[in-house]
Each structure stands twice: as structure tokens, then as C-alpha cells.
## 1
Amino acid sequence: MAPPGPRGSPGDCSVDLIAVGLLAAFDISKLGATALSWLWVAIGLGFVIFFHELGHFAVAKWCGVFVERFSIGFGPILWSFKKGDTEYALSAIPFGGYVKMLGQDDMDPSQLTTEEIAADPKSYSAKPVWQRMAIISAGVIMNILTGLVFFAIAFKSGVQTRPARLGPIVVGKPAWKAGLQTGDLLTRINGRECSDFGDIMRGVALTSGDVEIEGIYRDGRTFQKTLTPDKSDTRRMIGVAPAWDVRLTALGEENGPCTLAGTPAAEAGGFQPKDRIVEVGGKPVKSFADLQTLLTERRSEELEFVVERGPEDNEDKRERVTIKVAPNRFRRLGLSMDIEKISAVEADSPADQVQLKPGDKIAKVDGQEVGKEIDPVELPDYFQSRHGQNVSVEYTREVDGTKKTLTAELTPRNRTGWTDRFELKGSPLSVPSIGVAYHITSRVLKVAPGSPAEGKIAADETITAIELFLPDNAKDDGFSGAFGAMKFEASDKQPHIWAQAFWLMQMTPTRHVRLTVSSNDTKRTVELEPMRDPNSPLFFPERGFVFDDESMIQKAATVGDAFAMAADHARSTGVEIYLTLRSLVRRDLSFKELHGPIGIAKVAHQFASQGISPLLLFLGFLSVNLAVLNFLPIPVLDGGHMVFLCWEAVTRKRPSERVLIGATYCGMAFVLGLMVLVIYLDLFVHTGGPK
């Protein structure tokens, strides 16, 4: 992207990096900062700016235009030297650069129509239209070329990416309703091939209307589905996350533990980051879906885990280690809460087949009253344990303002519960064996005798806030960074907090629970330590492992293949940028997804921390981004200049000074306004500050 403002004006580079924020921050990994990676970021961003301005500069010189200054950065000049008629400068504000030419200054658009300057054969305005078009478009062309080179080098070296395989499915979201599961592979979305997981995210976020997906179930069957994306957040989504690998990774710090404190895996000891689980309970494990199936089917058993460790590229030096891990009983407070109405039903599930609908409320299961005789958190296990058998469900439904009690007989399938993730606040609890999801209210219906809550909390009281905290002198469990303060407060906007808090009680066994209890308009705080009932038949499927994301390497065999892959990647990137703009205009994508210079630098640093290839891939993306966005028909951008030049070429007459000045100031106001917006988002929204 060429300087949008005058060659040398403050408006110049601000947009060069604002533009990148339209796509930059969709995927930021969690990696530590190093001085070396920041150095690579500075060099890389400097190259992108340098080559863009070099394009303008070289063609301007070739056309005989007098170039007053070539600057990397704008604002006060830190260092400069003069060679020939041109001053070469390094300026204080590194968010761009500019080429200042005689007769072309966006801060003074009248130069383009000044007869005195136009009479100088070395001025920009004195050159024929085709030469001025060449000068204006040179920066964009140079960005495309350098983007191709960045991409090609990255693909020749090998780019690590995530396959289009599904990991955790968000309960109640479109993918869950359609029956997709962990381990399913998406092959096409809206007719476009999915080569990695990013294609799924962009294919949903940057389109309008329903999305058509094709793929392969984890059992090998193919499928085609039409999904209506959820638009309740800042961008459209279907509710899927990247697949996990069976390779363990450190939680938090690079050399941190690969198991969660207090869990059976941590208590077993012996597991190391980069261990790959290859066998569980005597059965081979080839994928995370295989592992999840084994852990759920045999969740009540002590299992032998066989891990393989050592260099992955040298089989002779790898070794196998066997470690026994105990089962993981649920940690409970002894509170049985009321169940909410069904919030979602999976298509073609047992519940769907008997016409259970969102809005229905399950009242009894096999004659047991939900909330008093059977805890809502126990329903996933209850139904799964009766798979293949008939189960009676009594439920209520509102019909024309009247509550009716209905009964259905359904046959659960063999799918275990509590395999879902609750990273999204307010996520409902699912019963996979029958295909329903429901929230759990904060109202206590029953307190179990002999439980931690007995004598401290009573039936009909309400839990308005839940905090999971580490007791004094407890070792950090590494979860604070992932879930912050781990405090959940019920509100009108987010009334459902119990399911996620209950899940986190299982994931963080060393934490205690602080409850805010409301009763008769008074509130009090109660601290409890969840306990495992040694006689309980209920077991949590997860045993406390920290898994790495599944990844794959895209590598070109030859230089020709590398440039072919680069060209395809550049084309896709350009299309996605325009789709992003369209989604912003249509409000399918929130402006809160934008990032400015600070966010872009952070993203670049994240990529640099992963290695040279990821950084090159990002710089290529940045180059194409700047090229496409800078050629938009907005005054002060290169595209705006091109519009005026096309007008002149067709009418044989230059736009009037009044038109040029008005358009330039409107364009600059837009650019500066956008700059203020994205810097505000960087400082106060993306950092968790005031909204």
C-alpha cells in the first residue's frame, strides 16, 4: 500500500498498518516474547514498507520525476543522507513510509493543478497520465511481488498449519445442532477447498447467509450439510475449534507441566511435554478421537497409558514408557440445582425423533424428578448408561400460553457426556446420548446429606456468583492465565453460570469454591472444598492431560511448486480481504475484530516467535493486504489517486482544485478516524481494558 496521505504526511503510514488489522488478529498463538523475535518483526515490517515505497520511488525516477525525499517512517527525521537530488531518511514513527515527489502532496492537493509546478518537466503533475498511473500503482505491484516471494520462501521451507479437522464442538451452536463431532474433517465450505482450519473460520466469518459444508465423518462416511452461522458474537461462527493431537504439551511456560495439578494424570507422575500417547488400556491410539473414545468408554477404570518420547524424526532413538493412571471421580459440592428449558436439539438425534424441542423442560426421567431425585449434571451419564433401552421422559411445553405435561419414550445411543468444552461463558450442558442441551439454573433444589454444602446452604437459595480460588500456600495450577480470575457472576445478560463452573471444578482439583448465596434479599459468602465421593459411580472422562493442537506441514517440493502455492495463497488472501470488508459493511463482522498498529506488531511477534516460516507467511499476508486495501477507491490512498487519473484519461481534463481538495480532506478524515478507532481497540478492547 502506498502512502495514503501526502508522500510524507502523517496520514501516510497510519493506514498502511491499520489495513492489516482487518484480518490480522483472527488467530494469535500464546508464545513468549524474545528480543530476537521483536528484532525480526522490526526487520520484516521494515521490508514490507521499504519495498512498497521502493516501487513508487523506482518508477518515479524512471519517469524522470524529481523525488525530494524517500523515507522509512514518518514524523521527525532521525537520520538521513542525501545522494543526488534525493534525501534518504529514517523517521521517528515507524508505522509506514513515504516518497515525496514534486507536484504530488496530499496535504496540499492544489499542487496537482498548479500551472507553475505543472510546467516543470520534472514534476509529477507534468507527466502523462500513463506514467502517473505507473507511479501510483508501482507500490501496490511491488507489494504483490514481495508477498509472492515471502509466501514462496515460506512454503519452500515448510509451513506448519492446523488441518481442517474438528476438535471440541461448542454445545448448542450450529455445528453441534448438525451432529458434527470431534475428529470429523471438513473438505469444502461454500464450494471452496478447506486446506487448513483457518479456511473454516474465514469461510464462515467472511460470507453471508447459510454455509454449505462437505466433509468426512471420523468413521469414514462422507456428508454434506447446510448450516446457519451464529451471529451472537462479533463474527459469524458455527462453533468449532481446532483438533487436538495425542501429543502432550506444557501448560503455560515452555518447561511447565503437561498435566493439570491435582488430577489423576498429575498424581501418576512421569509424563513429559512432547510425549505422544500411542496406547491406552491395551488398545492403539492413532488420533485424539480414538483417545477420547477410549477415555469415555473406560472412564471408571484404572488404565495403562503407553507414551512414546524422543526425537520424532529418528525412530531408533524413541522409547516407550508405560504409566498407570487412576480414574477421575467427579468433585461435588452436594448441591442439586434446577434444570432450565432445553436450549438446543441435535438434528436426527433420539430427542429430535420424538419431537422434543427447544423451550421444552425435562421434568422427570423414568419417574425421577429432575433436580430433587436426580441432579441435572448426572443426566448425561444416566442416559448413556441406558443406551439401547427405552427411557421415559416427562417434560412440560408452553402451548398458547398454557403449560402442558407430555411424555416421550426414547432410546439413547452410546455417547458419553462431559466431553464438551466450556470455554464460552454461558455454554449449556449437553446430553450426547439423546441430543439435547440445556442450561442449569442457579437455584438450589436439594442439598445432599454429608456433603460440603450441608448446613451452609439450604434448598431454594440462589447462587449469584461462583469463584474458584487457590487456597493459601497452594501451588499455582497454571489455569489463571487461561481463565483469568475464574469468577462467574450471574446477571440478566448472562444468568447461566453453573455448568461452566461445575466443569472447571473437575479441571482444577486444587481449587476451592467461594459462593455468593442469595436468600430473602440478603447475600452471604460461603467457602467450600469440593469432594470426591468414593462410592459415586460417576466419573469425569478427562484425566488431566494437556494436549497440543494437531498440526501438519505444508511444504513445496520444488521452487516452481513453491511459487504456485504462493500464487494460490496470495489470491485467496486478496479475496478474503474483500470479503472481510463486505462483512464489515453488512455487519456480519463486528468492527471490534479490527486491530491497529499495536495489535499488528503483536501478531507479527507471535509469528516471529514460532520461527522464520510463520513470520514470512505473515509478512506475505501483510504485503498482499496492503496492496489490496491501498488500491481501494478512497482519496489519499493509491486507489483514490487512480480514480482521478482514470477520470482525467477519459475526459482529457483534470479534476478541479475544489474537487481534489474536498475529496482529499474527506479521505484523510476517514483514514484518521479509522486510525483512532483501531488504536482505541488495541488499547482498551483487545487488552481487556474499558469497553
## 2
Amino acid sequence: MSKFKVIIAGGGVTALILANMLEMHGMDYVVLESHSAIAPQVGASIGLFTNGLRILDQMGLLESIQAIFADAPPSDTMHMRRPDGTLISSLTERSSQLERRYGYGLYFFDRQQLLQILYDNLKHKNRILLRKKVSGVDLVPGGGGVTVHCTDGTEYNGTIVVGADGVHSVVRSVMRSLADELEPGYFDPAESETEVVCHYRCSFGIAKHVPGWETGEDHTVTGHNQSQLVVTGPQDKIYWFLCDRLPEPKYGSDIPSYTREDEARFMEQNHDLPVTEKFTIGQIFDRKTVSTLTPLHEYVYKKWFFREIITLGDSAHKVWLLTKYTRTMANTRQPNPMGGQGANGAIESCAELINALVRIGAERGEQRLDGLSTEEVTRVFTETQNRRESRAKQLVRESHDIQSLLASESPFKTKLILHYISPILGQKVLLGRLGKKFLGASKLDSVPLPYRPKEVLFDDELPTAATKGASKVLARGALVGALGVGIVLAIKTYSLWRPRLTGST
């Protein structure tokens, strides 16, 4: 009987989160990372919300994250601004209020720092293999597991393989090819890589020591076919995202890639773009330490797995960057209960995979996970996708709507919602809408939740199903009532101020 082992392709956040969870549960694994370093500095930042932080707290990692902010607390104010940098509205005590309500706030810092924390926490670092680029996967006949091939000629045997290798996932391509050969029609022929769409490109990066910058404040800036997010981080850092709409949507292989020359030209063209009344994006560009220009992909694949192969994170679904930070200010859609923005969603997906493995292991008794059949693996993967898919789809739709709103694809809609409805609703309603998406979030079912004082319980923390249902009804009633009042006031305001709506946004 073969021993249970997970082969993880990729060495990013999803891969290292899963590796840590497997270690916590005594499950064997190996990580195959194509790069030469486990935590390279590529200019990426990361935002961890309540839903992701709750699981990281279960993993014993919250204190390490909080230590990054020992000298300066996380930003607590978000300003919404017009294209000229003038103020529309502000959301104050954002992180503090989230922590009071739900037990955890918001942390924004270098992705590299999170990777290092995850790597340092591993006990079996010898299972993290670098310069191992996956080239193929063989399914062992009779449900005997998988053999993963690397470009250097090495092979690794295991029970299942998890593709955590990003947007351009080799594992997903191999999985699709195997399914087309072994079970034609398993994947929808109409769904292919050409269905991946790109509407925007994004310049993002990290700057440091920008003279005169006000710490503790973040800025979302609307624009005409553009939008910006500028976030204050620890160690006097600033993280920026400048999203620019493409002249027309691009699909699949037609989605452009960008060179350093393209990035330099883009930054020069937008150098004088206002962020606030006092700062332009160029003043931040000029103090950058690392940056890049990249297309923003948008997709959720219909199937995430085939037999002993599953994809998680960006390999299965990809969303835009700005959603997680602007949802509180742009109330176009009911907030997604999963909160699975980027890394937070990957953390939840990993937790659900572990939960499914633990459940089936408990049912199998002394055998635990050794000798899993293909049918049992399929059940594990089906449970994982079923618990995550709908929320991933909701986030992609919501991301699209919010990016459209911020970039003023419909100027009238942008003005009405951001200038009138959001300010009328007020901070409590906005934070309530933001927080509602956390309540149905996943956790590690087999690991105790550390005690954190909070005003609102997650769905899985409520004492009984009956109480849970009643709570949802009451919460929904309160929300509908608040929104109803807000909409009535917004309509009255719109009627009074209609002549002014033809001005600039």
C-alpha cells in the first residue's frame, strides 16, 4: 500500500501555505519550485484580510505578521479621490473597526515577507526543492498515484499533485491534455486558455522614503479608463497599483506581455497623474525600489481537477488587484462572503483541501490516507472545489464591476455611486458590507481557533444551525433596511442635485 504524499508544483503563497498545513497534520509532501529562491523580491505586495488572518492565526503565524508592524501600525484610513486628486470621501478606522468587529484587521506588506515567514515556519525545509520546473505528470494505472517529471530529468512520486504554479500553470496544461486523452469531454471543449480575458494592464511596485508622504493613509483614485490604489506600508514603504484599460479586450495568447521598455514608457506617460492634491504618481515612481507592468487576467475555470491532479490559487482562478481595497467604498454589489481576494482565497482553498483530506482519513480508520483510490481522491477534490467555486466566481464578477466603476467606464454611474450613495450610507454600513463577506469564510476544521475578542461571530462559530439561520435572517433584514434608507436618501439627493451631475467626475 502506497504511503500518502502530496507533490506541490510551485513555490508561492499557495504552495507554502499548503506545505505548512500538511506539516501541521503530519502529512508528507514535497514542493517543486522552478526559481532559484523561495522568497524573491519581485515588487509584489499582499493584503491579508480577516478571513485569511483567522486561518493564519490557527497556524500560529499571526504574531510573526504583526511583528512587521511593530514600529508603525497598519494604515487605518482610506480616501476615495477624483481624477484630479481631490477628495470624495474617507473611511476612517478601517482596520481598527474590522478588528473590533471580527477579531482581525487588515495588514498590507511585501509578499516576499509573507513567503519568508511561511518558509521559516516549516520544520522540513529539505522538502522544498528549488530549480525544479515541472514538465509533465504521469497518472499511475489503477489509481496508483502520480509521477511528476521535471525539466532536469528528475522524477517524484506521490499520491496527488497540486498545481500551485500560477497563471501560466504547467500543471493545468498537462491535466487538460491527460483528460482529453483519457476521458474526452471531461473538460468543456468550449472552455480553453483562449477564454481567459484581459481588460486592463497594471503597473505595480514598491517605493520607499517618499518625501512628505502622509503615513497611515491609503488612496483610491478614480479616473477615465484608469484607476489607482496607493497604500502606505511598514518601514516607510508605499505600494502602488495603476490600472489602465486596454483599447479592446484581449484573450488567451493575444494577451500582451510587457518589457522593461514598455514599463518605462508607461510610467513616463503617466508621471503627472494626480494621486492627491499634493502628490502625483510620478513622485512615487521616482522613489521606487522595484516595479513591473503586467496584464490583469480574469477567469474561474469550470473544473479544477482531474483524477489525482488539482489546481489551486491563480492556477484555478484569477482576479483583479483593486477589489480587496475598494469594496468598502464602491457599493455596486453585495459583498462576497468568502473574501477570497488573492492570497486570502488561496489560504481558504488550502484549508478546504486539508479539511476534505482529514474527513476521508477519519472515515478510513487505521489506513488513514495511505492507498487512496482514484474515487476517494475525486471525492476529496470535488468537496474542495464545491466549497470554494461559487465564492471565487462571485469575486471575479465583483472585481470586474468595481474596476469598471473606478475607471469610470460609465461616468454617470461612477458619480452617482461614489459621490452620492456611498457617503450617504456612512461608515458603519460600508464596514458592515465589507465584513459580511468574512462570515462564511473557511477555516481549518481540525485545528482550534485561538480566542480573539470580537463583536460578530463567523458562521462556523455560531452555537447551532438554528441560531446561525436566525442570525442570517436578522443580519439580512438589518442590511436591507439600512440599504433601503440609503437608496431613498440617494434618490432624493439625486433629484435635488441632478443639474450638477453633468460636471467632472
## 3
Amino acid sequence: MFIFCLATVISTFIYLCLIAYYIYYWNRINPPLIPTSAELPMVTILIAARNEEDSILACIQSCLNQNYPPNKLEVIVVDDQSEDDTNELLESIEDPRFVHMRLGVYKRTTIKGSKKKAIAYGVNHAKGELIFTTDADCRVAPDWIQSMIPFFNDPKVKLVSGPVKITNQSSLIAKFQALDFSANGLVNAAGIKSGLHYLCSGANLAYRKQVFLEHNVYEDNYHIASGDDIFLLEKIKSVYPDGIVFSKLANSMVETQAVSNWTDLIKQRLRWAGKMRHISDWNLKWIPALIWIQRILLFSFLVVAISLGSVNYILASITAIILQLLLDFLLQYDACRFYTISKWQIWFIILEPLHTIYFILLGIASWLPVSIEWKGRSNP
């Protein structure tokens, strides 16, 4: 039992240090000091869409409503073989800045890496020297481009990652996702700032087209169903380790809708977890593994301590839980404040046990040989 207790204490101590590390580097992220140049670059907003008839028009309208010179803006949507009315809706848009492209029609519905092909096709046909990407179910702020452009006045910067926020927060599952998204966004931003690890969301990215084309970023991973964002990030990091930054600006925020039910949420997260098997950054492997082990140890230690009736071990486990909750709360507080969802902070206490169970089960399920269907395709 002593060894069990010691392992729990050590793993919890490392976890607490890690959370404190993230909070520290999050608060060290500052806006760019380099002023925007007088000559604004040509920008292409690129969206790869599949079966998005319910959201695509609102997304495109938010892109076209940018506070950016019309002659410097292009919006490209590459349809990834939609089977609904997405293409018909796209063809109805009449704006000289808008370009609608379609991938070739495939006979099979299981096509690995098809979104990467859509993105690569769009980049190759883009007029902009800077590529901004978002997802078809998102909406971007009017000053989205203007807020990200100043980073690129530094020639060392090759890619800018931005924040993504859950907007519909009325249901329990939406609140769960809003808190989870904001905390993960803080962790990813702090990881970029510190150089500990690099993660981003393709829903809010900007990068130099020349870098994408010169390094053929998807060359080695077209066979992997997802990961258009993480593999792009990994390739750029491998060539330009100091060329990635995070935009901690409210105007850079991209909004998306929460998944409406738990089944689809698990499918979504399993898809995301699946691509992590193929990354080369070991920090993105051992850190989630450490957190998973710590959660298992702490929960098991509490159960065993109670079953043995050991007051000392029970007090030790409760102390560890309180310290973990305190550090998690502080991280969530910073995240909620930036993502303007502070009113949901109280839900952290209610949802934290649920999140622990969810994290443990998801960690197990992510290694099972399951096939996930998403937007009419099966992604193994």
C-alpha cells in the first residue's frame, strides 16, 4: 500500500507542476509588438467542406464580412464530395471574392485523407500569400484577419494558431464542451509559448502559402484519415521551430457550435485521439499518458483507502484531490475569463468528476480498433 501511495503522490505532484507550468506560460503570452505594415498582404480564407448545408452559408458570410480591403481578400470553399445540398448552396453565392471548387467524385465513401487533399488543392489555387483556414461549421469575427496579420510582419513567423470557442452553451453537454474547449485552448497556447508541445485547431489557423507549398506538408500522411491541422503544424515546426505563435486576442476568436449529443461527442473525440497515434512529438504522448495514469491512481487509491478504513491514507487521497481541484480551477478560471464564459465557471465543480470519468474511458477507447463514421465516411 505504501508503494501505491507513493506512486499516487508522485504522479499527482508532477501533474500539479504541469498545470502550474501551463498557467505561468499562458499569462506570459502577449500581443504582437510589431505594427501592421501599410501594405496589407493578399489573404485567402480556405474552407474544406463536406455535408455542411446547415452551416456553410453563415460561415461564408462571416468570412466575406471581414474588415479587410475587398481587393485583398479571397474566400475559397473546396467541397469534399458532399452528399447533401452543400454544393447547390455554394453555387448560389454571388460575390467576386468567392471561389467554389470541387474535388473529383470518388466511387468509394471511405477515403482517407480527403480533407487534406481538399486543403492542398485549395492552397495550390489560392491567390493569397497568407492562408487562413476555418471549418465550415464555424463563424469568424469581423476583425479576424486584421488581428492575425501583425504577427506575420515578423519574418520568422510562419504559422499563427488562434482560439476557438463553443457558443451554444445552454445544455449540459454544451457547457461540458465549452469548459473543455477553453481549458484545452489554454493548454495548447501555453504549450506553443513554452515550446513544450504544439497543438492547434484547423478551425483557426493562418500560415504562409509559400511554406505550405515548399515543404509539401501532407506528403507523408495522406493515408491517415484526419489530422490536417496537426500534421501541418508538425511539418512547419520541424523546419521552423521558432516560427509558430498563438494569437491571444479576442478579435482572433472563432466560434463553433457544440456537438448536440454524447454519442457524436465521443465519436468526435475518438477521431481526434486517433490522429495522435501518428504524431512524432513525444511530449504529446507522455503528457496525456501521465495525466491518465494519475487519474487512475488517484481514484483507485481513494477507493482502496476507504475499503481499508485507513484514516491516514484517506486524508492523503482527499488532500491530493483538493490540490488537484484547486490547480484545475485556477487554470479553468484563466480560460473562462479569456473565452468570456466566466458565468459557467461554477459548472466546473459539477462537471469535473464527469470529465475525469470521460477522460479515463476515452483514453481506453482511443486504443481500441474501432471504426468511426463521420459525415458519411468510415474513419478507421
